Every structure is written in structure tokens, then in C-alpha cells.
Amino acid sequence: MVPVVLLLGGVCDHSGKIIPIVPEFDITDSFESGLGQWTAQAIDLGEPAGTWSIQGTTEEASAGMHSVQLTLDNVSSAGKVWIERELDAAPTQAYDVDISFDLASADFGTLDLWTVIAGAYPAPPRAADELTFQDDTGNGASTDDGYHWVSKSYTVHARSDEEGHLSVTIGVWGTSETARSYYLDNVRLQLTRAG
Predict the structure, then answer these.
(1) Of 22, 28, 127, 170, which is least packed with CB atoms within 10 Å of its CB?
(2) 4, pLDDT greater than 50
(3) Does domain 25-193 have CATH number 3.30.1780.10?
(4) What does the pLDDT read at residue 143?
(5) Minimal CA–CA distance to 19: which of 28, 27, 29, 9?
């Protein structure tokens, strides 16, 4: 993988000289060829386990013709589904990771909303306490009128492991016992060395 380098500004050193801040990775994905380098994961599905799926679809899209559909029949109020992508970065390096994407949600109002998962880690998370939870899945509508696309953007901090592995996740935590689907599209990841 060849990283794309963009200048996003800079900081000044002690002499006033501008030192550019350069992302090491600038990755975009609109899922026009399916999941690509992303993989599907799920945990805390209950007993008996609730059903789930993560797949490419043309039902909804904010960029191009395709997106990724996340579906969870949540029987435990604890189910979590997400996509993850592993990156080969510099070993034991701290990064500022900007994660942005479009989320299509039918969750309206302020009650019974689920929670967005978005984070970066030195190893792929496999337990709830390893995941990073963000804000809710509300689409901004006050009435039930179907799916709306909302833009999500988060900055997290992570350190790659000794071999340079870094994993990014995007998904949802089902906080109530219902069946729901969401769509992800127009993902952008920017990783900039911290410090």
C-alpha cells in the first residue's frame, strides 16, 4: 500500500519556521467493489445468538452506487457489529486518527437510539471493553420517515504495535432489543503521526 501525502498546515518550531503536518495515510472508500480490505465482526450476540450480517448493497448510497449494510437482530441489548480494517504503519508510533463517514439511519427523535462505534487500536478488538463508543445513531428527524444520511467525524489517538499494526473500526452497538439496519458509505481515514 502506498500512502497518499497531503499537506494540512503546519506548526512553528522555536525559530518560527513552519514544519508541515503530513498525514501518513489518507484513505477513502465508497465500497463500490464490496467490502474491499474491510472485514465484518460481531460480539455480544446473546444466547441464543441474535442474527447479524454485514454486506455490500445498492439499497442506499451517499457516494457512488454502493454502501455497506449492517444488520443486527439484537436479542441481548448488547450486540455489537462493525467493519474493521488493518493498516501497516510505523512500529510503536502514536497516531492521531481522523475517522469520517456517512451513516444512513432510520433512528429518529431522541429515545431508543443505538451507539456508534469508531476507533483505532494496536490489535483488532474482540471484547466490548476494547471498543471505542462515540455518539448516537439518531438521524436528526423528529418523526419516523425512513433513512437519512448523516455525516460522522471523530478523532481518536492510537499507538501501533511493535510490528506496525493498527486496526480501525466503524459500526454500531445495539442498546435495545430490536432488529435494525444501518448503512455506511464515503469512509475517510487520515492518520498523522503524533508528537
Answers:
(1) 127
(2) no
(3) no
(4) 96
(5) 9
